[in-house]
Amino acid sequence: MFPAIGLVVLLAMVFGGFAFTGGALGPVLEAIPHEMLIIGGAGAGALIIGNSPKELKALGGGIMKVMKGPKYKKQDYLDVIFLVSKLMKMLRMDGPIALEPHVEDPKSSAICAEYPRRRADHSLGHLIADTLRLVVVSSGTLDVHAVEEVMDNAIKTHHHAVEGPQHTLQSLADALPALGIVAAVLGVVKTMGSIDKPPTILGAMIGSALVGTFMGVLLAYGMVGPLATRLKQIIDADAAIYHVVKQIIIASLHGHPQPLVIEAARSGIAHVNQPAFAEVFDGLRGR
To answer: CB count, 10 Å around CB of 195?
Structure first.
């Protein structure tokens, strides 16, 4: 919702301010479709050249992510804390053999079934299951620092993958001013071919050409660049839940008391989604 509101404010202020100061919107609006055909077409072509179909599909998903906002809310963080804490408690109390069915086949796990949203989250589910599988097959003898290193690599790989659309958007934003210049130069070439026309006609043609530069800069710094920035904010916000999983597993493997495990997980959550300590602790005691 907010990106749409921002877009309306942007267009209203730019074009409204131009009209308020005496500018004629007619020639600008008349030139925009032609300039956008060149700029937009060149931008689309550049995206196709520089990305695979899979990456272009991910770009569409990234734009949708900007419109929806961060994926994880407070309840999601509570669910993942409860889920991973229950699995780690089972490992501690009943041993690796009791935990094995839950990590080998999460779809059949009674514990995972209590949190259907987490079970449907494949990337987060893989982090939990793959890490605990290592612990199970090693009968709990793995060095905790080795487990932490594996988790760090898994989180880094995932984060690198989801950052792809943001980098694509930023690259497009960086290219748009130059593509606007391309459109403007073509407009000047067209104008030079009509140099014998009256000044009023030449002035309109030069003004139309300059709209290309204007649109390239506006698209880059007013639209696509901010979209890339917002997407990065959302990606970084959603990454916090992966670190919550890591903190619970690593702190539990170190043998820390449960209050410290809870605080290690809770402290890495942004305040807008951070549950109270008592909320987490009471929830765990009641489960």
So the answer is: 8
Residue type, 260: L
Phi, psi of 173 (to 5 degrees): -60, -40
Other C-beta atoms closer than 10 Å to the C-beta of 72 total 22
User: Which residues, including other chains, have CB under 8 Å from residue 4's CB and lie 6 or more apart?
Assistant: 67
Q: Which two tokens stand for residue 27?
A: 């020639």
DSSP character at residue 195: T
Q: Where are the domains of the chain?
A: 30-287
Query: What is the average pLDDT value for the chain, to the nearest integer?
Result: 88
In angstroms, the Cα distances linking 183 to 163, 170, 246, 257 are: 30, 20, 50, 64
Neighbours of 232 (CB within 10 A): 17
Q: What is the pLDDT of residues 214-260, one digit of tens each?
A: 999 999 999 999 999 999 999 999 999 999 999 999 999 888 888 88
Query: CA nearest 129: which of 143, 109, 149, 152?
Result: 109
Q: Identify whether the C-beta of residue 230 lies closer than 8 Å to the C-beta of residue 66.
A: yes
Distance (Å, rounded) from C-alpha 80 to C-alpha 242? 9
Model pLDDT for residues 40-55, shown as the tens digit of each residue: 999 999 999 999 999 9
Enumerate residue ranges in the chain where pLDDT < 70: 1, 119, 140, 286-287
